[in-house]
Write the structure tokens for this entry.
Amino acid sequence: MSHALQSAVKFQGRTQIVDLTSDASDDDQEGATHAKRPNAPLAAGTNHHEHTHQQQQQQQRQDDQIAAASDEWDDSSTDLESMMGDELDLSEDQPYMNQPFGFTSAEAAAHRARLHRVGADRWIFETATAGIPIPKLCTVFGIRPFLPIGDDDYYQLLGKAIRRELLKRQKLPQYNTIQDAARLLKTSKNIIVVCGAGISTSLGIPDFRSKNTGFYSKLREYGFSEPEEVFTIENFDMDPTTFYTLAGEILPGIQEWSPTHGFIRLLQDKGKLLTNYTQNIDNIESHAGIFPDKLIQCHGSWATATCRKCGYHVPGEKIFPDVEARKVSYCTRCMENASVVKARKRKRGSNSNSRTRRKQGAFDDDDSSDDMYDESEIGVMKPDITFFGEALPDKFFTRFNEIDLELADLVVVIGTSMKVKPVSEM
Ligand SMILES: [Zn+2]
């Protein structure tokens, strides 16, 4: 899909484009320059005085925004690539659509629709011919028009934004009403349901990514700003106490499910459910009765847990008491093995002097701590939730590519923005 990017680069090479984007102005203020351009919509206001006042206010707002953007970009200007990535993410979460420096949301939507209709080359040609400055053109995709970067970098951003936009699916024009949706559900035979945190929040299970949930503030109490810091396999292996201190907060109450889980179950009961792909780790789909062969838990789940040392695999419920008690859950099989070793070593140890035993180092030679294990010998249990840094379940890829892709006649997406891998790539 490097097509769009190529277009942007090719576009950059044309001299008349450079002329269009650098229309001479004495004003060195980038925002103000844009405001004067004929294609920029005028600010509201009928009398001249009011108009000027509004412009001043707008200018002030603009200055503040530019200052903020400059600060952000200057902080880590060493890594332009990642700054661009961040800007693109921001453009999706909080698209810039302020006039007169950007387009209205309706204008931007019309531009994007046109891009999908005519393709990148044609669209770029048209907008360039219309004399739209590149920073302003970037606002079609929600990118801020006053970043402290040159046009060259804006071309790059534009190329990336176009590529991202063209990967997005477009709305099918023939389906518009609830009745249309109902008819699709009625007539489809192999329905895929993709779901995410949104279907469980009504049960009080926090969505990691919503920043105002109890879980998020808990994380901050412990000095973490992102869930990623806790749910990283390296961090878990280094120190599982953090996870076990916090995990109780996200342990699912397994007795209930939401009406949405009920809906997925209903599809299954009617023989229409092909596969339920869930990003949730709460395993509530299982409790709502979705059959294991119809359920793909894309990020794993609490349903089972595995020893990090010996691979001992247990039902998730086995570790729930530890999770609820906020303490690290250790592997019982490792413990059994360790106690055997311990007994043997002690026997042997009683024949040797204490110095040798201390040198062996693995075991405490104080008799009062008989039931203490050497922690390095005992594996920690980890719920089979996919942590950051761990491979996703193979089942996801084989099921999707080898079976579902061919069979599905309807996809229902509920409670997810589809931004997280692997569902973002489905
Ligand atoms: Zn073990």
Residues 307, 309-310, 312, 331, 333-334, 379 surround zinc ion (CB under 6 Å). The first helix runs from residue 3 to 12.
